[in-house]
Amino acid sequence: MALQIHILDYGDIELETSFLVLGHECGRVRRVPVYGFLITGGEYPIVVDTGYRDNAIMESLGMRGLQYHDNMIENQLARHGLRVGDIRYVLHTHLHIDHAGKDDKFPMNTTVVINRREMEFSVSGIMFPQYPKPDIKHLIDRIYEPEAMRFLDLDITGAEEIIPGVWCERAGAHTEGSMNVIVETAEGLACICGDVIYDFNDQIVNHVYTNNWMEPRVTGNHSESKRAEKGAIKKLLNNYTFLLPIHDRPAKIERQRVVGRLGMSVPGPMTETVPNRPWFPV
What we know:
The protein is α+β, with helices and mostly antiparallel strands. The protein has one domain (4-273): Ribonuclease Z/Hydroxyacylglutathione hydrolase-like (Metallo-beta-lactamase, Chain A, 4-Layer Sandwich). 18% of the residues lie in helices and 30% in strands. The strands form 2 sheets. Strands 1, 2, 3, 4, 5, 6, 7 and 15 form an 8-stranded mixed beta sheet that branches. The termini are far apart.
């Protein structure tokens, strides 16, 4: 059975647009989704990212959480006939407030997989309060339980396999320890790329405030250099057939261009297409 990726809808958040795309529409409030992903068809079911803890915790960043009963991780998994105890691995692209808030819902015999550099970065204070105490403290508690945590050393080892057809690699963008999750699907390689990309239209298709040919726009929320951010986005566009960020719908990529957008699973039918043209500034 081929591997498939299903979107888990954890609700929405409202935030300033310039947080998503550097310098774009400062002061405008925008509502964006918060997704996680369920990988099925392999040796074990895998969840990638678990969303934010609750609506109130988003206020610590000056954002508004819009999470309802249907968005609870238990209910999202139930749509696919699974319970939290059925999940063998939880992988984290990184540990920001909207990515690792529900890990304590999973039993200790579910292994949480993190790039070790991200764990170190989360307690450094550099991007506080994007790493809230309840989430990080739970992960520290997991370190002391047998097999409850697996650390990857992606900056040293390169890619590391989780199960056949699923592996992780260093993202090189957004946070110092961010990682991408690669899934081998029947229609090509899919990359769950966390927050390396926030918004396909404004960063890549129309790449606002950018004149240079095929030059992506960086996000307004990163700890790496702008050159590193641009390079990481270009790497994604060069290497993968499908890209799945956390705050935008998945895209299909051909020749470094976004050619279509997908629905709630990958592979899956394209719900809309994007004209196959060069990137033009607006």
